[in-house]
Structures are given as structure tokens and as C-alpha cells.
Amino acid sequence: MITPQEIQEKVFDKAVRGYNADQVDVFLDELTTSLEELLSEKAALEETLAAANAKLDEYKAQEGAVIRTLESAKGLMNEISASAEKRADIIMKNAQLNADQLIRSAQESVDRLKDEEKDLGYRVASIKNRFRNILQAELDRFDNMSQDIFGAFPSVSEDEPTETSKSLEKELTQVIAKE
């Protein structure tokens, strides 16, 4: 490439019918100035291009870092998601185990209460029978006593119970019927 200085230093041979030397010198000066401006502009553009390339390299490096960060974040999110799913599974299994345990406990309580109900039923029936037997024994004793007491009195017959014995018998019948 021809430099502006080479243009200024160029010397042409003189010829008889050559170009006007002053015009050639003026044109060469203009050409030198234009070439200097172009070279200066080229240098400025090269600096701008170098700066842009440096920024581009910096952005590419940052892009790589951003991509690595995003990939890392994506991996971390996948791990968190998997961990959360595992925790949810564990929580669900624990809840199911607790529910099963509560159901078993409730069933055991129901079975125990049913057994207690049966036992109480037997005990109530037994008490009723004993009370009935006691009342019957007392009625039998009362009948025996009344025969002994009223047997001495011919005016009162056994076939005709007295008002007192009727009322006692009625009360005992009501007590037994309630049981």
C-alpha cells in the first residue's frame, strides 16, 4: 500500500509536453490529504472493531458463564424437584402408616368395647337372675310364713289372698317385670 509520505516524496521526470507541475503537486497534496484521512479513519475503525471484538469476546465469555449458571440452576432445580418428590413420598407413606395405625387402634378399641359390652350384658343378666332368684326365694319364704301365720286362723283361707299380700305380690311382679 502506498503511504501519504511516498506520494509526497514521489518525483516525476520532466518531459517537454508533460503535465503542469503545479497542478500535479496540488492534486498530489489533495490525494495525500484524502489518503491520510482514509488511513486515520481506517485506524479509528480498526480500533473500534478491536474494541467491539474485545466486547464480543467478553460477552461470549459471559454467555458461557451464563449458560453454565443456567445449566447448574437447571440441575439444581431437578435435584430439588426430585428431593421434594422423595419428601412428598415419605410424608405420604408416613401419613398412610399413621392412618393405618389409627385405624388399627380404633378397631382394637371397638373390639374391646364390644367385649366389654358383652361382659356387661352377661353381668346384668346374671344380676337380674340372682335378683329374680332372691325375690322368688323371698316370695316362697313369705308364702311359707303366711301359711304358718294364717294357717292358725281358719277365717283366712289360702285361696283368698289378703289385700296386703296382693299388694306385695303386685309390687314384686312389677319389680321383676322391670328387670
Short description, anyone?
With about 180 residues, the chain is an all-alpha fold. The chain has helices spanning about 5-10, 20-150, 165-179.
Please tell me about this protein's structure:
The chain is built from 3 helices and no strands. The model has no long low-confidence stretch (mean pLDDT 85). With 179 residues, the chain is mainly alpha-helical. The protein has one domain. The longest helix is centred in the middle third of the chain and has 130 residues. The chain is rod-shaped.
Task: Return the domain count.
Answer: 1
Low-confidence parts: none
Alpha plus pi helix count: 3
Q: How many beta strands in the DSSP annotation?
A: 0
Helix content: over 70%
| Beta-strand share of residues | under 5%
Compute the separation of the termini in Å.
133 Å
Write down the overall mean pLDDT: 85
Shape: rod-shaped
Query: Helix/strand/pairing class, anyone?
Result: mainly alpha
State Rg. 64 Å
- Please describe the biggest sheet, giving its number of strands, its sense, and whether it closes into a barrel: none
Can you write the helix and strand succession as a string? HHH
